[in-house]
Design a protein that fits this description.
By secondary structure, the chain is an alpha+beta fold. It folds into five domains: about 90 residues, GIY-YIG endonuclease (3-Layer(aba) Sandwich); about 140 residues, no CATH class; about 110 residues, Nucleotidyltransferase, domain 5 (2-Layer Sandwich); about 170 residues, UvrC, RNAse H endonuclease domain (Nucleotidyltransferase, domain 5), CATH 3.30.420; about 55 residues, 5' to 3' exonuclease, C-terminal subdomain (DNA polymerase, domain 1). It is about 40% helix and about 15% strand. Strands 13, 14, 15, 16, 17, 18 and 19 form a seven-stranded mixed β-sheet that branches.
Length: about 675
């Protein structure tokens, strides 16, 4: 620690504020907030401090410390968020591309307000809805809204289409601070009513004739009628669908009573359109009448998916998905707190209740800040039981699925996978980008249900038809090295045999079909082998390839913890004493991780299947006269070996295919072991 940092630490005030860590080049590494700057910053530099790997890596790069004192913890939270958005520090959790999220704007400061997409949110008297993560979805929503609610989409100055509104006696909370609206209203109010002259257009545009605008530009609709449409748009975007339907029914009845049958028919069609739209939506009801946001996370490596569901009036009104960067080794509470700060700092509205999957760090300060943002009470809770927990679990499942879809989208991006393969060629010194990559992994529990898995990627994309599963046959106990060797030997010996050779005819199944695979399916030579393991696994598998005289590029991949430096992936290569470490943002590293994770998933899935099968059939295998059909019938009827052991002779005989003699043998072999259940039996 240099003298400047020591002096800064010694003079830190016991006041709220933000602290800023910088590296030798002056780049901001991390921005944090604190109720007491002195106490919080000293926690990073105390001797023997129990820091996470991420914070140890951060401290090792800090060369200077700056801080800003503010008046309260809430002010510190706001200032911290501004710095994170502006500087995107490497060690902070941050929304990815958060400045570009679109909003739907209802331009209340305009005459005859428009509804359109914008890229920023301002406190200017207009209504904003969002942020949304998909601009295409926003445009589709606007198109749908315009089909149901015929508002104008043109950019004409509409000041002369209807007499001006009288100037209100005092601005509302929403209008406060809107200089533009105040100026427009003052100018309109200054015009004497008798001197106002309409400035209408000569004819309506096509939007009127296709029933997507009520044409206030030619006085086909009054200001009051148009404002009623905009009110319905706002209610709809707020998720208050029942209020929209009620307004339409009342207006339709009034039009019919006044013999305005054409207007009543138009309102009827609009009512039908809203009802049909709501009927297609998946409506999830909650018992709460308070507006709720429910937030959950799913994390993998350096990325986290945050899913937020919006419940309005007890019904699901919408949802959004956000991706966060810089979450490697960050705690769930830290990630949740960072997301809440960054999302609600740019959200137009805060609901009365926010449910979170994990309790955020500094929850009390966050809740106070949310109350200030809303201008009313906000309940920030992490439910532990009841219906609210089930809501959070539903959102968490959706977050997990969204993260998986993000992975699939990456794999389907041809440009990214091509770049990843090119990076692997250069980093591993290959003759060409690897076309076919095979990855191997072992799965067992203390040596039981020992299985192996092989996954195949071609051109950077999974080839599921070539996935293979191996039951390890010759290895006793938990010996990953020997299990890897058996798997590779069985896989590559098949390349030396013709399709008719059945001397090594193991039953190796594909993930989807579950059928025997002919030997010639292994004839494709991979361009790169990836082993899930370190130097020892690599050397063990190299011995097998040398015995078979097969020369294929091979690497081992393992995640290693290096203390203050943090965790990172290390790539082990033959004849290279030091492991290769690719940059964290490398597309090649991302592809290796995805392939390794897929092999691990495939191996775990097969291991669970084998373990489950062994659990249900181990004792029944010992019973003479009980073949596969009878075993299947018994398990389907009773559900477990323990239930079979507890059954009477008559109950066993009642199972299809069972005889009294067979039932007696089952009781003899299994009933006697009822008090000593097989390990793992359910």
């Amino acid at each position: 620690m240099n003298e400047q940092m020591q002096a800064t630490l010694a003079n830190l005030p016991h006041k709220p504020g933000i602290y800023i860590y910088k590296d030798a080049q002056g780049t901001i590494l991390y921005v944090g907030k604190a109720t007491s700057l002195h106490s919080r910053v000293h926690q990073y530099f105390q001797a023997g401090a129990d820091l996470s790997p991420k914070n140890r890596a951060l401290v090792s790069h800090i060369e200077s410390i700056e801080y800003i004192v503010v008046g309260s913890a809430i002010e510190a939270l706001i200032l911290e968020n501004e710095y994170i958005k502006r500087h995107q520090p490497k060690y902070n959790v941050r929304l990815r591309d958060d400045k570009n999220y679109p909003y739907i704007k209802v331009a209340l400061t305009e005459n005859f307000p428009r509804v359109y997409r914008v890229r920023s949110f301002r406190q200017d008297g207009n209504r904003y809805f969002g942020p949304y993560t998909n601009a295409g979805a926003v445009d589709a929503t606007l198109d749908l809204l315009n089909k149901i609610f015929p508002f104008r989409t043109c950019r004409y100055d509409a000041a002369g289409w209807a007499p001006p509104h009288p100037l209100p006696p005092a601005p509302s909370a929403m209008e406060r601070g809107s200089e533009r609206r105040g100026a427009v209203q003052r100018a309109q109010a200054a015009i004497p009513p008798g001197e106002w002259k309409p400035k209408l257009l000569p004819r309506p545009c096509t939007q009127y004739f296709i029933h997507r605008c009520v044409a206030p530009c030619v006085a086909k609709a009054s200001r009051e009628e148009y404002d009623a449409i905009i009110k319905q748009v706002i209610l709809f975007l707020e998720g208050k669908h029942e209020a929209v339907l009620d307004d339409l029914r009342v207006a339709m009845a009034a039009a019919a009573e006044n013999l305005e049958f054409e207007r009543a028919a138009a309102l009827r069609d609009r009512l039908d359109a809203v009802e049909q739209l709501l009927a297609k939506q998946k409506i999830i009801n909650t018992t709460s009448t308070t507006d709720q946001d429910v937030i959950a996370l799913a994390s993998e490596d350096d990325e986290t998916c945050a899913q937020i569901f919006f419940f309005r009036g007890g019904k699901l009104a919408g949802r959004e998905t956000f991706n966060l960067k810089g979450t490697r080794e960050a705690s769930a509470g830290e990630i949740m707190a960072s997301f809440l700060q960054q999302f609600y700092s740019q959200a137009p509205a805060v609901p009365g209740e926010v449910l979170t999957q994990h309790e955020p760090d500094d929850a009390a300060d966050l809740q106070a800040w949310l109350r200030e943002r809303r201008g009313g009470a906000v309940a920030l809770t992490t439910p532990r039981r009841g219906d609210k927990v089930r809501l959070v679990e539903m959102v968490a499942q959706n977050a997990k699925e969204a993260l998986e879809m993000e992975r699939i989208r990456w794999l389907s991006d041809t440009q990214k996978t091509a770049l990843a393969l090119q990076e692997l060629q250069e980093a591993l010194n290959l003759a060409a980008p690897p076309h076919r990559i095979e990855c191997y992994d072992i799965s067992n529990i203390q040596g039981t249900a020992n299985v192996g898995a092989m996954v195949v990627f071609e051109n950077g994309k999974p080839k599921n038809s070539d996935y293979r599963r191996f039951k390890i046959k010759t290895v006793e106990g938990a010996n990953d090295y020997a299990s890897h060797q058996e798997m590779l030997r069985r896989r590559f010996k098949r390349m030396a045999h013709t399709p008719d050779d059945t001397t090594l005819a193991e039953i190796i199944t594909s993930e989807t079909g579950g059928e025997a695979v002919p030997a010639d399916s292994f004839q494709a030579m991979p361009d790169l082998l990836i082993i899930d393991g370190g130097r020892g696994h690599l050397n063990a598998d190299l011995a097998v390839l040398d015995d078979l005289d097969i020369h294929i590029p091979i690497i081992g991949v393992a995640k290693e913890d290096h203390g203050a430096i943090g965790e990172h992936e290390e790539i082990y290569q033959p004849e290279q004493p030091d492991p290769l470490v690719l940059p964290r943002g490398s597309q090649g590293l991302y592809l290796i991780q995805r392939i390794r994770d897929e092999a691990h998933r495939f191996a775990i899935t097969y291991h669970r299947q084998v373990r489950s099968t062994k659990t249900f059939t181990s004792l029944l295998d010992e019973v003479p006269g009980i073949g596969p059909k009878r075993k299947k019938a018994l398990i389907q009827h009773f559900g477990s070996v323990r239930a079979i052991a507890a059954a009477s002779i008559d109950e066993l005989v009642a199972v299809a295919g069972m005889t009294r003699d067979a039932a007696a043998k089952v009781k003899e072999y299994i009933g006697a072991k009822e008090s000593k259940p097989t390990e793992g039996e359910i």
